[in-house]
Amino acid sequence: MKFPPAPILALLALEGACALVPPGSHSGQGGDPDPPTQGGAGGGGSGGADPLGGSTNVATASGGITARGGTVLTGGTLTTGGTTTTGGAIATGGTPSGGSTATGGLASGGTATAGHANGGSATGGTTNGGSTAGGTTARGGSMASGGTSARGGTTATGGMASGGSASGGTSTSPGGSYPQPPPITNGTSGFTTRYWDCCKPACGWAANSNNKPTKTCGKDGTSTVDSNTQSACSGGSAYMCYWGAPWSVSNTLSFGFAAFGDTSNCGVCYQLQFTGKGQYNGSDPGSNALNGKTMIVQVINTGDISSNQFDLLIPGGGVGANTSGCPAQWGNIDIGNTTGGMLTTCKDSASCVQQMCQAAFGNMPQLLAGCNWVTGWFSAAEDPQIVYQKIACPAEITAKSGE
Fold it and tell me: Is residue 311 flagged as an active site residue?
């Protein structure tokens, strides 16, 4: 990891102060059992027209117009193999057996069974079921099993019918896909770092979040505890929830959570657009690879960080100043350097980070996915620069945080 000059290092060393002091107080880390106003981000960089036998004309006998073999009987031009015999236009497959209103018509292959069902227009389409034998409103219509957006459709396991774009769309999180937001044209310049200190976030206190606090969890990282529960980083039993890990929505869009500014930002979402440059190393390969990608984050924490700095919640991102939370929650596991976490320990080696992620979070799927995210979607970027602006919070994000 590349480090900034000494004055900036001094500032960054302060990153990650968890929300540990009562509202109105600014005493920094540690804090009291009352709700705080300053929070602890981590430190460091952080879905034919005719039936089987032909048209819908009605025959007077079993075969052609007047006799079994058409107008010239058996050997005429319309014999057994003629156009109106057994396989003719009005023969066995005529109105009685396979016409547009009989067996292959609206009865067996009508709007309920054939049509575009089970494979589009093949099984019950122009060959077997005629134009009405399963039209666009059939079981396999344009929005069902074999339709355009169906089980084999373009966006999902069951198209709009079975599961919409949520099951097989681009999103890796339950709740469906989310459109790529338009590029930022007049945003504010900033940069991102990373942390995960296991502490209760500042916005988890009702007094800091307009009585709509961020959910906080017990030691298991999944069960929600009361908002008045003291942070584990101050001797309590409230921890950061595992849902705080980032996740990708598409190749160019991710969701997550961050520490940013003061508690007036609690619950606010921001669109971060990566510029392709690193804050301290403009040619950082990971930051270059992020060029043009977008992340939407919700602010759930605060910290002693720069006014234009978003400290992203990333498992294994470094605990910063709050060193007691993660050992209290997980015991003695290797989560990397205090400042910068696994990326710093591994000197930006993706394979090394992946091994550390597996060793630390192999039995914690949400954290493992978020840890691997940093070497996948995030390209192991070191403090990438961004432009940012406020944006309406996606439902996928608020469903997790409760804000």
Answer: yes
